[in-house]
Specification:
46% helix; two-stranded antiparallel ribbon; two-stranded parallel sheet; mainly alpha
Length: 225
């Protein structure tokens, strides 16, 4: 009677290659996207009552065009999207109303300013090239095409300093070349700290009592004394 032998073939482990690493990185969300999704969702939940109140107040005014503005913007990879914002800048509600774009993935919490399609800064170098292939290859290397526009950014928190190197375009490009999660957290902290400090200063100034010299004079005091 013949004896059957079974041969087990062990699967060879997949080699650690750069291509495998690239596929692994694409399969998992980046740390920046995780920050956008988690923090953006929390901020949206916290701001929801305020946004609802602002939308109701605007709806009561019956503004032409509704309570939201709709404007085309250029996103990641040069893909256009429609940006929705509340028609008011009180309490920065217009900015907070863009949080759904962060959760959806159109915007990031931190990034360059979302530009309209007709803005010259949104046009990648090579857009007027002779052939579409050259234009596409040049546009793919343009830094504005390589990251999402942001709810706020380095240009927004630094552009008012008045320094020549704090031009918005230079700040946006610097962020595109050096961005990481730590820088995003620092920009977010600065974006919250500045308006909060201004609000506290405003409340403090309004709450101060303006007393004249006569308020401290005792009864019967005259200038002749």
């Amino acid at each position: 009677m013949p004896i059957r032998t079974q041969v087990r073939v062990q699967a060879q482990p997949r080699e650690w290659t750069w291509e495998w690493l690239r596929e692994w990185r694409q399969a998992w969300p980046s740390a920046k996207r995780v920050l956008d999704l988690t923090l953006g969702s929390v901020l949206l939940l916290l701001a929801a009552p305020l946004l609802a109140a602002g939308a109701l107040a605007l709806a009561a005014q019956r503004l032409p065009g509704g309570v939201l503005t709709r404007s085309p913007r250029i996103g990641l990879g040069g893909h256009p999207f429609v940006l929705h914002s509340l028609r008011t800048r009180r309490l920065r509600l217009d900015l907070l109303s863009r949080l759904p774009h962060v959760v959806r993935g159109d915007l990031s919490l931190v990034g360059p300013e979302p530009l309209p399609p007709d803005d010259e800064r949104a046009r990648a170098p090579g857009a007027d090239a002779d052939t579409p292939e050259i234009a596409a290859a040049t546009a793919a290397r343009h830094w504005r095409q390589e990251l999402k526009p942001g709810l706020t950014g380095l240009a927004q928190v630094r552009s008012r300093s008045g320094m020549p190197w704090d031009e918005p375009a230079l700040l946006d490009q610097h962020y595109a070349e050096h961005h990481w999660v730590g820088l995003d957290l620092a920009i977010l902290a600065r974006a919250v700290h500045t308006p909060l400090r201004r609000a506290i200063r405003g409340l403090t100034r309004h709450g101060k009592a303006h007393l004249s010299d006569t308020d401290h004079r005792r009864c019967g005091y005259s200038a002749a004394e």
